[in-house]
Design a protein that fits this description.
Helix content is 49%, strand content 19%. The chain contains 8 helices and 9 strands. The chain is globular and about 50 Å long. The site of guanosine-5'-monophosphate (5GP) has 14 residues, from strand 5, strand 6 and helix 5.
């Protein structure tokens, strides 16, 4: 009884657990994330990563990513500003300590959208995250989605498909992900994501209402 009370007290003190969303590029992570942030704006906050890739049409600096040069990013990594960083498809990506702290300071559940290298690295930190993998129904469907998105050059697309094959294998490794969602029908996948996070959502709502 006491232990249960203590565990609950401790977890409220530590704040909500961050949520890591991972999965192949084109699987639908950003689409699902946008829906979640829209429905639960006072519950979730996005950890805005840094990247050296160019913004896509419609993306905003400081909202989707912090767009930086490789030199600036390498200098910041050397300074120790990042929790994790990785090279993906020829560009650097990374989660800064400030990005996660900013969301925590607002008492929101921090969502990270990171690749499989990021998942491995975050697992070795004390972040105590919930790990969710978003997978496409198949590689062919993924390729169609990436082509229809019209954001990648042929070279970038091929690199992403190559990485996707490894990611789809990685997601099957025992003990890596708490939940695996196959994003075939968008509304169904979104329902599964919401259900997986309902306990955390309700906890944050309760804490924020009483403060
Ligand atoms: P990611 O963030 O994982 O790279 P996106 O969210 O950008 O992927 O999705 C890739 C493309 O697939 C986008 O054009 C998006 O509109 C589309 N898409 C996402 N989910 C679905 C789905 N369930 N059915 C069909 N198209 C989808
Ligand atoms: P995109 O260029 O499509 O936005 O992202 C490419 C890949 O980089 C995706 O798998 C995405 O999850 C990953 N990514 C985005 N931000 C980060 C980050 O901060 N760290 C890591 N490791 N991967 C990231």
């Amino acid at each position: 009884m006491f232990m249960r009370y203590f565990a609950r007290f401790y977890s409220a003190m530590a704040g909500p657990r961050p949520v890591v969303l991972s999965g192949p590029s084109g699987a639908g992570k950003s689409t699902l994330l946008r829906k979640l942030l829209k429905e639960y704006s006072g519950v979730f906050g996005f950890s805005v990563s840094h990247t050296t890739r160019n913004p896509r049409p419609g993306e905003e600096n400081g909202k989707d990513y912090h767009y930086v040069t490789r030199e600036a990013m390498e200098a910041a990594i050397d300074k120790g500003d990042f929790i994790e960083n990785a090279e993906f498809s020829g560009n650097l990506y990374g989660t800064s300590k400030a990005a996660v702290q900013d969301v925590k300071d607002r008492n929101l559940i921090c969502i990270l959208d990171i690749d499989m290298q990021g998942v491995r690295n975050i697992k070795s930190t004390d972040l105590n995250a919930i790990y969710i993998s978003i997978q496409p129904p198949s590689l062919d469907v993924l390729e169609n989605r990436l082509r229809n998105r019209k954001t990648e050059s042929e070279e970038s697309l091929q690199k992403r498909l190559h990485a996707a094959k490894m990611d789809m294998e990685f997601s099957k490794e025992a003990g890596v992900f708490d939940v695996i969602i196959v994003n075939d029908n968008l509304e169904e996948a979104y329902g599964q994501l919401r259900d997986a996070l309902l306990e955390e959502i309700n906890q944050v709502k309760k804490v924020n209402m009483s403060s």
